[in-house]
Write a structure and sequence with these properties.
about 1300 residues, mainly alpha, about 70% helix, about 0% strand, elongated, disordered C terminus, ARM-type_fold
Length: about 1300
């Protein structure tokens, strides 16, 4: 009987012409040699004939005997004909053929389930052949089906491209319809699943008994493995939750081959799986699932497949088959994914094979090293029990052994923090954070891990720094010590328990000593007996002097508590150190956005846990509200929301009950008050802007400030004592500060969301504490009984912001004077009524206030009056008239005597001038705001048709946009000019002659310092309003800015001149040098303010810097750090505006500064910074040439040293080197006369030479010139003689050494027992 042997391919079964077909194996007979052969070529047949042939195959396979396929040669040849031509038969026929073969194989498998070695040999032989034949045929069908499945999408794409190209003929449509029909009739995924299920059932058969006494045919097992591998390598065939059953069939095949037939198939299966893992990305998680299935479900704990696969991976790496480079390959990434998946699925199994995986820590691929780090984290989380630490049992697999393994893994994780790759270091820190979140870090490792994180905050990679901050934050969030971590509390508690422990230990030692004396004491027997009768037992029946039963337990508990407190105290100090020494000074101001984002999050988290230094750090973080990075601002917004405004357990605050919302609002106010206490002026402004940012509401991001919080702010503003009644548990420092904070919050929120601020609460009477409305609250809070100046300022600020945010009812440009600004919230107490006018008037007339309080209050009141009143000119006219009438101008004799009346009159005059100047400035701002409002209104009124903005504006005004703009500008110009009219029509212009007279005659005679400051402010503000007044008084202001003895007056006038340069550039342009001269002022305050003002003017092209740039450059070496930083920012920003800006003026600065008395060390610092912007070759070469030529024009030592210093600071370029060596004659004399100058030129030469040599440009004539110049400079420095002497000594030493070596060699030749003697020079060397 013929036996079927598994071929490599079906074509091997074909008997060639002339070949003997009478062998014992089943083959396909050749039709030329065997006319009875049933094998036919279906490719040449018609579709009808192919269908008929397949139908005949199905009928033959429908026999009761499933082994009919190999029992009859005719059946075999008929079926193999259809199998070989599988791709060419109709789709329906394919489905029928696969169904028939799978059904027969399933029946055969059921038959073989009961086979045994004692069965008939011929029957077993037939069944073996049938099984191998079915497996071979189905493998061929799988191969062909997979080809069709991968080609079908490509054909569909080609058809789509054909349609796009325009080939829409009938033939193309017919082909598309045929293809669509084929795809609907031929369901290959279903057939593939059916085929794999039948093949998987074959692995359940007892093949050992079927093939007994011979071993199982390796070809059969290999063919089964190939079938499973075909599906594993095809992602759509096995990936996805819907294909879980199909994957189980594949896993069953692999598991059976690897475990049931491990002797022959374990290693080949592992190698094939390893190769698939290296080639296909989707295989990694599937392979982990296979290992889990093989170990837990199929093998019942047999882990040989996973172990062999890990060994195979390690063997490939050790053998060098993988590229031994740092480049990360796809195979390494897939292996990393596989190991991580296995560790998550089977942590204990991976832990038992950790010795195989540890060598991967030395692999060049950082992905593999990172994967092993992740594996170790999964092992710690899943392989080691939390009860191991409490157990004392030991053994190979006992808890103590597992504890030692865990300790080893933790030590390895600590080492990986210092990996050479940033990704691995970051992954290690992330693993530690995950372990911390799962509460798996032992208390003994807590501070060690914290130290590792603190050390990585200075890492060069931002990725690692980010992970380090996240790890520290996780350590704080999941700390086992306390919900808050102030170091002082832990230090106090630690000291108390340490003293208690010492006392307990001392008591225990004393008790033990007494007990020992009672037991071993000496004395007479009678005395001992008497004593024994007396002190044998105490009242509790215990022997006297014995230790309490629980004393050891109490001491142990106290020791554990002390150790825990020491760990907690050390941890708080570590976090505080990281916050104050790394995060605050470096990461919070980093140029990398991710550093800043994480630093803000870390500072917010530290503030939540009350870490030392956290409030100061978070106050600095408030300044980031002005950052250009949206991510930074969003991070600050989120942290601020989490700290003060979000619900404690998440969710929407407005969903909470009203009582909880109120308590949350009071807590937020308390937190904001604590944060604001200690803020600088800049930080307070940033805090206000943060609140405004939180109040802003858009379609994408709603407001963080909820209505109940705003209601509580109104309640506190109306009566700050309410906080002690409503929430006695929350500490508020004082009622005044609490009220001012509430008012400032309302003002900040009103800048971006006035509707939220003015939203009516449900309990209006309760919220406003009985007052009529919110305007009445502001009036009562700022100007009511007992109100302080600070309260008035805060209330006025709320009024100002609400009025600015309200809509304006404005007519056309012609009615600019009559424009009425009306507040949209028309309550009876709306600002502008008599009560508010009276309050404002009273505040401006309060003479008992100190100077600082009065000026600040007057500023706020005037801003509020001009923002909310319909006609503030009438109000200001009355105020100014009353204040002017109250002036008492002193006589000359009284002013010289310094009498009290003169001092009072000076104070009133100072306040009058301040109010006059600020009122004029507010009026000017009012004109600008009204003009903007008119433009905005005109632009917002559309004509109805979709035209551009110009057409819509023309539709509104009846003219074009240019005419409208001209009308607005003309009206604004007339309004500004009429503001200072002296004919009595202007409330401010009536006092202009008085101010001009004070400026020209009395500015130097005033002895009251605030009066001079007020006069300077008033004059500059009035000059901003009128160009005529500016031109008539500009010369006096300039002279006063030079001669004023007070730095405050000089600073005020300098800043005023800068503002005038923007307002009236033509008038101020001749006096620009006065501004630059103030950069050398003796006052640091003046220099800083002038530097900031000039920076703005220069960057806006309002003043010229050329010709005065040396004055600005001197500030780069100023004694004050803020002035230096401002100058550096100016030059850096100016260099960004154009590459030639700084490079064009660097030479002028270099030569101009040398004519001043600036020290050379400061000169070098200035030029070092400026020349860092000179980078282009043409700039460097040009400047080098011009610097060198300057040596010939000035032979002074100072100039020579400065020029040589600049030459040494220039970057290397070949043309610059040529310019240097070509002009040797220019600096030859300077180098010969001054060694320091020669040394700097030599430094420049060597620097340029090194750069040219690196670029390969140092050759030929240029090299000779460089050598000549270098020799000349060395000769000037006296270095040539020393080098020649050293060279001569070396040559002489070499000659002497050669002579002695020659003599020694001769001695050896004469007598071999003589050793050569080296010269002393050789011995010394």
């Amino acid at each position: 009987m013929a036996v079927f042997m598994v071929p490599l391919s079906l074509t091997e079964l074909l008997v060639a012409n002339g070949e003997d077909s009478s062998s014992s194996s089943m083959r396909i007979r050749s039709s030329s040699d065997s006319p009875d052969s049933k094998f036919v070529d279906l490719t040449a047949m018609s579709m009808v004939q192919k269908n008929q042939h397949v139908q005949m195959c199905i009928q033959l396979l429908a026999h009761d005997d499933a082994a009919i396929l190999t029992s009859s040669q005719d059946v075999f040849e008929t079926v193999i004909s259809a199998t070989v031509a599988y791709q060419h038969i109709p789709d329906m026929a394919k489905s029928l053929l696969v169904d028939a073969m799978c059904s027969n194989l399933s029946v055969l498998n059921a038959t073989l389930m009961s086979v045994s070695a004692a069965d008939d040999a011929e029957t077993r032989q037939t069944n073996r052949s049938a099984l191998m034949c079915y497996v071979t045929f189905l493998h061929h069908i799988l191969q062909e089906g997979q080809k069709f499945n991968s080609a079908a999408p490509a054909d569909a794409t080609a058809a789509a491209a054909e349609l796009v190209a325009g080939k829409r003929g009938a033939k193309a449509k017919a082909a598309k319809a045929a293809k669509a029909a084929a795809l609907t009739e031929y369901d290959w995924p279903m057939l593939r699943a059916k085929t794999m299920r039948a093949l998987a059932s074959a692995t359940v058969v007892d093949l050992q008994s079927l093939f007994s006494p011979a071993p199982v045919d390796d070809a059969l097992l290999t063919m089964l493995g190939k079938c499973a591998m075909l599906l594993l390598e095809d992602a759509p065939a096995v990936a996805g939750k819907a294909l879980r059953e199909q994957r189980a069939d594949v896993w069953r095949v692999f598991s059976a081959l690897a475990l049931t037939h491990a002797n022959t198939q374990l290693e080949p299966v592992a190698e094939s799986l390893r190769d698939a893992l290296a080639k296909h990305e989707h295989v990694a998680p599937l392979l982990a699932e296979l290992c889990e299935f093989a170990t837990l479900e199929f093998g019942g704990g047999d882990s040989r497949l996973f172990t062999r696969l890990c060994t195979s991976l390690a063997a490939v790496e050790d053998s060098g088959d993988a590229a031994p480079t740092a480049a990360d390959t796809a195979g390494a990434r897939n292996a990393a994914t596989f190991l991580q998946e296995c560790a998550e699925r089977m942590p204990k199994l991976v832990a038992s094979n950790m010795a195989i995986l540890l060598p991967f820590l030395a692999h060049e691929s950082y992905t593999l090293r990172s994967a092993i780090v992740g594996v170790m984290g999964s092992i710690v989380a899943g392989a080691f029990s939390a009860n191991d630490e409490a157990s004392v049992e030991d053994g190979p697999g006992g808890p103590m052994a597992r504890l030692r393994s865990k300790q080893h893994v933790l030590d390895l994780l600590c080492e990986r923090v210092h990996d050479k790759n940033a990704y691995t270091r970051s992954k290690t820190l992330q693993v530690w954070a995950s372990l911390c979140a799962d509460k798996l870090i032992p208390i003994g490792h807590w501070n060690h891990v914290a130290k590792l994180a603190v050390g990585r905050l200075n890492d060069k990679s931002s990725l690692v720094r980010k992970a380090a901050m996240q790890l520290l934050g996780t350590l704080m969030q999941f700390n086992p010590f306390a919900p808050e971590l102030p170091s002082a509390a832990f230090a106090t508690t630690l000291q108390d328990y340490t003293e208690r422990l010492k006392a307990m230990e001392a008591d225990a030692k004393e008790a033990a000593k007494k007990a020992e004396e009672n037991i071993w004491g000496e004395g007479d027997d009678e005395d001992e007996e008497d004593a024994g009768d007396d002190v044998d037992e105490d009242s509790d029946g215990k022997p006297k002097g014995s230790l309490p039963e629980n004393i050891d337990g109490e001491i142990a508990s106290c020791r554990a508590l002390v150790a825990s407190l020491e760990t907690a105290h050390s941890f708080t100090l570590l976090v505080s150190q990281a916050l104050t020494q790394v995060v605050l000074p470096y990461l919070l101001t980093s140029a990398v956005a991710t550093d800043v984002v994480e630093a803000v999050s870390f500072a917010g988290l530290a503030l939540r846990f009350r870490i030392d230094g956290a409030p100061a750090a978070f106050r600095k973080a408030l300044l980031l509200v002005y950052s250009r990075e949206m991510a930074v601002r969003d991070s600050l917004r989120m942290q601020f929301s989490d700290l003060y405004f979000n619900a404690p357990e998440g969710g929407d605050v407005e969903d909470l009950p009203v009582d909880q919302q109120s308590m949350l609002a009071y807590g937020a106010l308390s937190g904001l008050l604590e944060l604001a206490d200690g803020c600088t002026a800049g930080e307070l402004a940033a805090l206000e802007d943060v609140v405004a940012l939180l109040a802003r509401s858009t379609d994408e991001v709603p407001s963080v400030l909820y209505p109940r919080f705003m209601t509580i702010c109104w309640s506190v503003a109306s009566d700050p004592a309410i906080v002690k009644v409503r929430c006695p548990d929350i500490a508020f420092p004082s009622a005044r500060k609490t009220r001012q904070l509430a008012l400032n919050v309302l003002a900040s929120a009103a800048t971006t969301n006035p509707e939220l601020v003015m939203e009516e609460a449900d309990d209006v009477d309760d919220a406003l504490c009985g007052l009529d409305d919110k305007w009445s609250v502001l009036l009562h809070a700022g100007f009511g009984e007992g109100a302080r100046p600070g309260d008035a300022r805060c209330a006025c600020r709320v009024v100002t912001e609400l009025a600015r945010s309200c809509a304006a009812d404005i007519g056309d440009a012609g009615s600019l004077f009559g424009a009425q600004v009306t507040v949209s919230y028309g309550a009876p107490g709306t600002p502008g009524t008599s009560s508010w006018k009276k309050a404002f008037h009273t505040a401006l007339s309060r003479s008992e206030l100190s100077e600082g309080s009065y000026y600040a209050t007057a500023t706020a009141v005037l801003d509020a009056a001009f923002a909310c009143m319909p006609n503030p000119e009438h109000f200001m006219a009355a105020v100014l008239q009353e204040m002017y009438a109250g002036l008492e101008m002193p006589a000359a004799s009284e002013e010289e005597d310094g009498g009290g009346d003169a001092e009072v009159s000076a104070m009133r005059l100072s306040r009058f001038l301040y109010v006059l100047g600020h009122a004029s400035l507010n009026q000017l701002v009012r004109h600008d705001s009204l003009a903007r409002a008119i433009r905005k209104k005109a632009a917002s009124e559309k004509t109805g048709s979709k035209k551009d903005e110009e057409d819509s504006l023309a539709g509104v005004t009846g003219n074009n946009v240019q005419q409208l703009e001209m009308e607005i500008e003309d009206a604004q110009r007339r309004a500004d000019a009429d503001m200072l009219l002296e004919d009595g029509s202007s409330a401010i212009g009536a006092y202009v002659p008085f101010v001009a007279q004070l400026l020209s005659k009395c500015r130097s005679s005033f002895t009251y310092a605030p009066l001079r400051n007020s006069l300077a402010l008033c004059v500059t503000k009035l000059m901003l309003c009128s160009e005529r007044f500016c031109r008539s008084n500009l010369r006096a202001v300039v002279a006063w800015s030079r001669d004023a003895p007070e730095s405050s007056v000089r600073c005020t006038l300098a800043v005023g001149l800068a503002d005038l340069a923007v307002r009236w550039p033509n008038a101020v342009e001749p006096y620009t040098d006065v501004l630059y001269a103030r950069l050398s002022d003796s006052s640091t305050r003046v220099r800083k303010q002038v530097m900031l003002s000039l920076s703005h003017l220069i960057l806006c092209d309002m003043v010229k810097i050329r010709g005065n740039v040396a004055d600005v450059a001197r500030c780069l070496a100023d004694d004050d750090a803020e002035v230096r930083d401002a100058a550096k920012r100016l030059f850096a920003e100016w260099a960004k505006r154009g590459p030639n800006n700084v490079a064009g003026v660097a030479l002028d600065v270099a030569t101009t500064l040398l004519t001043t008395n600036i020290p050379l060390d400061r000169y070098r610092a200035i030029m070092t910074y400026l020349l860092s912007f000179v980078e282009r070759e043409k700039h460097v070469s040009s400047m080098m040439e011009r610097l060198v030529l300057r040596f010939a024009t000035d032979d002074s030592t100072r100039v020579g040293r400065g020029l040589a210093c600049c030459c040494a600071l220039l970057p290397p370029h070949a043309k610059a080197l040529k310019a240097l060596v070509d002009n040797l004659a220019a600096f030859k004399a300077a180098a010969a006369s001054d060694s320091e100058c020669a040394a700097s030129i030599l430094e420049a030469l060597l620097k340029q030479k090194k750069g040219a040599d690196k670029g390969g440009e140092l050759k030929g004539e240029l090299a000779d010139k460089v050598t000549a110049v270098e020799d000349h400079l060395k000769q000037c420095l006296g270095l040539v003689d020393e080098e020649e002497e050293a060279q001569e000594e070396e040559e002489m030493g070499g000659d002497k050494e050669n002579e002695e070596n020659a003599g020694a060699t001769k001695s050896v030749a004469v007598g071999s027992n003589l050793e050569p003697v080296a010269s002393p020079l050789v011995q010394a060397r």
